[in-house]
Every structure is written in structure tokens, then in C-alpha cells.
């Protein structure tokens, strides 16, 4: 088997449905499997999986065992030569895995030093997520992040390592750290590394795994030729518990890998608190959700009528000519709803990325479903609306 896609779920039933639908389309031409492991969700995630995806392997944990342990449990059941660790609040394109595996295989054949491969991630508004590629957060690199020096000197190798700015977002190349929302690697390497460190409940686990791959003299890569949506705010509500766990995670990583001086320890404590406070307040930031007009990209007028009845607003329907459209800049807040019964996932992802605009928000209608879903900010929880 070529690939095992591991999706760890916790209380994101509707995002999980969208994610699995996109993954199913993306593995149609591969010898691949999907493994969903649920961390004791209190919503109907497991019931949905059994009803809609009875052929997908589902592992039901009896407790929330955290991100590392949950993924480790699932990987033990995997059969693929490669594994993909994938967040449930993601949407992949139909050719994502084919492109990633072709890239990984070519690197693995040329040199026996392939580490972890990540890809280009965007949020629900089409904006690039810079954590798609990062450097090792050493004390100096953390300092440049905390004080925004990477923004002031983006071309300087001295200051631009936190987000691996030696690479453009549309440039493939070696990086140190990848994000756990999307990680592809050989299952053999994952097992060699011992998987995610279960002493870390969440948040620093991807940094730690990436770093340990480097310690084995492996090369991690950022691959830009496929784009995946990551509704970043959905998996975690950024509250007091989030802040506590984020602090614990950063402490875990630095204590494990950097036993530094008193100055280092003091600096990192200040940095951890700073990061935690910033992230907590980011999570509380709300965008202007007042929508002035709705546009449905579809060829199904019955769907338009259903949406109008639910939203109690006029919905304009547009069927794309050759899947392309140009929107003029508008002062109106516009919600664009993309029907994936009409557009494939790759076209929908490309559309969102190409038309990102402060005046636009985007939602998807998953295939054969009765809800729209998406996120208006990478800092807010995503949202879904049932429409029949």
C-alpha cells in the first residue's frame, strides 16, 4: 500500500466530514487507506463516520489522549509505505497526494535522507499560513519572532529564520520545521523516530518530531505545488486552557532539546508568556461578519433557493465559464459559497486563493450534504450552517 492518511478528530464533526470527502477524492487513483481516530468526541463524529463512511477505518478512543498519543495509536494500524498526518479541519485537492508522493519518492530514490514533507497551507480566506514552513525556534530565532524583526528584515538571514523566509511561499525547498496539520513521511521513519512524543499533549509535538528528524540527518521539505486549506482556528478554542497548554508545550520542547543558561531560561519564560498572551487575544479577535451580499458558485438553482430560505437573504447564483471568474473590488462584504457538487476541491481551493480579498468570505458546500462550512479568520473557530 502506498499511503495511509491519519486523521485525528476531536469534536469537529462537520469539518471532519468535509475533510474525509476531500481525502477520498484525492486517493481515488492510489493504493491508499484512511484511518480516522476519534479522541472521545462528545458530538456525533463517530456516528457520522459510521453512517457516511462505513468503509473508512475508525478507531474510537475512550478518552482524549492528546494529539501525539492519538496519532501514534493510529499509525500502529497503518499499512502504507508513507503516512500523512492530517488535521480534520483541512481540505485537500484531488491531486495533493499524487504530487506529494511523486516528490517524496523522487527525493527518496536520489538520496536516502528524506525526512518530513509539508505543503502550502492557506486559511479559509485564502491567505497563506506562514507556519507551513519554519525554522528551529532557538532562543535567537524566538527573539526575532517575539519582537517582529522577521517582518522588518524579511530578506536578512539573521532575522528571517522563524518562518523560513529564505524560501518564498511559492518555492519548494529544504526547511527545518513543518506543521502537524499536514505532514507526509515514510512510515518507517515515523517508527524510527518513535512517533510523536507522548509527553507533549499538543502544540510542540510537530516541532519536536521535525527536529528529531533533523537529528537523524534527514532533510525536511516544504513543497509548494499543492495547496491545502487549513481552517486553523477550528481545532482549538484559544482560551485559558489553550494558554496553559501552549506554555507547557513550549517548556517541553526547550527543556528537551535546549538546556541553556539562566539567561536563556529567563528569556524563554518571557517569550512563552508573550506568545501565549498574543495567541489568546488573537483567538478573541472577531472579524466583521455583517454580510451584504451572497454569491453561490453552482449550477443548481434548487440549492440557491434552499440557501435563500435559510439565510433569509437574496443569493445570486453564478455558473463559472470554464471555471474562471473575475470579481471586481467591492466595498460590500460578500460571502462566496462554493458548491463542491459543481466544482472539484482543487478548483475551489484555487478559486479561494486567487480571489482572496478583505471584502470576501468563503464557504464550501460539501458534496451531497446539507450544510455550508468555512472560516472567516485563521484566529476564529470555523462555522457551519445547516440549510435544509
Structure report:
- The protein is an alpha/beta fold.
- Helix content is 36%, strand content 21%.
- It has twelve helices and 15 strands.
- The strands form four sheets. The chain has a five-stranded mixed beta sheet, with helices on both faces.
- α11 links the parallel β10 (293-297) and β11.
- α1 (13-26) packs parallel to α2, α5 (139-146) packs parallel to α10 (262-284) and α9 (240-257) packs antiparallel against α10 (262-284).
- It is globular.
- The model has no long low-confidence stretch (mean pLDDT 87).
Relative helix content? 25-40%
Sequence of secondary-structure elements: EHEHEHEEHEHHEEHHEHHEHEEHEEE
- Cα-to-Cα separation, first versus last residue: 39 Å
| Number of separate strands | 15
Structural class: alpha/beta
Quick structural summary:
This protein has 388 residues and is of the alpha/beta class. Helix content is 36%, strand content 21%.
Descriptors:
388 residues; alpha/beta; five-stranded mixed beta sheet; 12 helices; 15 strands; 36% helix; globular
Please describe the topology of this protein.
Layout: E1 3-9, H1 13-26, E2 32-38, H2 45-52, E3 57-60, H3 66-77, E4 82-86, E5 90-91, H4 96-110, E6 114-122, H5 139-146, H6 149-152, E7 173-175, E8 182-186, H7 187-192, H8 205-215, E9 219-230, H9 240-257, H10 262-284, E10 293-297, H11 301-311, E11 315-318, E12 334-339, H12 345-354, E13 360-365, E14 371-374, E15 383-386
Parallel strand pairs: 1-2, 1-4, 2-3, 6-9, 10-11, 10-12, 12-13
Antiparallel strand pairs: 4-8, 5-9, 7-9, 14-15
Helix pairs in contact: 1-2, 5-10, 9-10
